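can u pls check wat happens w/ zinc ion
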Amino acid sequence: MHALVVIDVQNDFCPGGALAVDRGDEIVQPINALMAEVDAVVLTQDWHPAGHSSFASSHQGKTPFELIEMPYGPQVLWPDHCIQGSPGANFHPDLEVDRADMIIRKGFRAAIDSYSAFFENDHQTPTGLEGYLRTRGIDRLTMVGLATDFCVNFSAVDAAKLGFQVTVLQDLCRAIDLEGSLQTALDGMRQAGVTLA
Ligand SMILES: [Zn+2]
């Protein structure tokens, strides 16, 4: 069984959003088209409480895109984004959300971020997605979405480590690319056994 996992195609990650990924909106229609070709469609939704610890505004004297050390490891500080219930947290209006079998929210705990659809940034706290996929007999994942070098990357690497057969469609992802983070992510995914198509 084969699932399409659509990572964080939300207003705040698209042009005009709080943490816009360049040309992030270009991938929406081709993602919709892919939904017809798989056994299951899963959407992830970044979903932070106001004042989340991944926001630079929550740390005195810090600015967005600085790196800090959190109890669970290094964390990039972001502009405030995807606040629960805000328009920015909504999916892109053209994404065919009604076709999703499952929507999994992540990053809802104030003290920890969650790039991956499978584990929070401590790499230990599960989101529950693994259990959902396994109980549905899904072993093959195609991943697309935003952003290639953060949430897609972390999700794909975790999925591969968990034993899923993972393909990332690079044309249907867009990157933030902070200081070479895209190349690092591509190398890391390849090393983890993710197929980059
Ligand atoms: Zn976030």
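Residues 44 and 152 are 10 Å apart (CA to CA).
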